[in-house]
Amino acid sequence: MSGREAQPNGLTIAVDNGHANTGSEEAMTLTILGCGTLGIAILSGILTSLSSVNSSEPSPSPSGTNTPAGPYEDDLPSRMPSRFIACVTRDASAKRVKTALSSNLSSVTILKKENLKGVQQADVILLACKPKNLKDGILREPGMREALKGKLVISILAGTSVESLKENVYGPDSPKDKDPSVEGRCTFVRVMPNTASLIRSSMTVIAESAPPLTTPQTNLVTWIFSQVGRAVHLPPYMMDAATALCASGPAFFALMLEAMADGAVAMGLPRAEAQTMAAQTMKGTAEMVLNGQHPALLREQVCTPGGCTAGGLQVLEDGKVRASVATGVRTASVAASRLGRGEQGVNGPR
Description:
By secondary structure, the chain is an alpha/beta fold. The protein is 45% helix and 14% strand.
């Protein structure tokens, strides 16, 4: 059954309760605080998946392949969100949400400058604003602490630890390891998707919580981010290295892709074709690794003794490409750790 709810700011869109909900019949509401580019991408993936559940068809990614399932593929949430609230601050942002989600607007409500209302109506909150908005007090406005009570807050804020989130809401004396449900507080979980969420090909890292999330909470968080790619669970102390590999990784791969295309252009290939060929070659290689092929074995299979690949690889090894890439990941990991501690100028002279 669907209907329309008029809101004071005129930005609300119809609410539809007809989306699939496993287990309980009670509807779950997911609010996205700061529904920008990543928030829209995640919300789009969820809505597309829910539509496919209703139609009993697999949910395809834009590339034409089904979104890969992760290790929790059989652990579907007992409740799935069926109502969504996108909180924004500007008319332009509201327009972007409407345009991006035009095929699923019936289940989305857009609120402008009404974060508290969005949290009050939510069961689960996705914190997707810029980190500076946290410092500006997005979670400290009057009534917000009470509105968050007992709810799950999923943070995708870059470089922001769960401890920082707790301190922001509850102050520096916030208990570190006590069960938040007993304390009457919200439960935070840190998640790090990457920019490929935009095409549902993200590598998302979910930080394990202390105390652990409940099984339904774990399944829900994993399911949400499995709709925009793959998801893995790692201890919090690994998040800086994961940031360097997965969040910074697309920039590193883009640099290597660009370099390969440049070499091909220098040898006569047109720029557009060289870029497409390099990208498809990188994608195909990655798919083979994801299907179980070890990178070293794959390299050896392509490298015929005395052939052109062997000559090219020798130049790359002489240029210390392997060491440079590995050092780049390590450097980015250290920088991520320092940024998480609030340091400035983390990439200054060493």
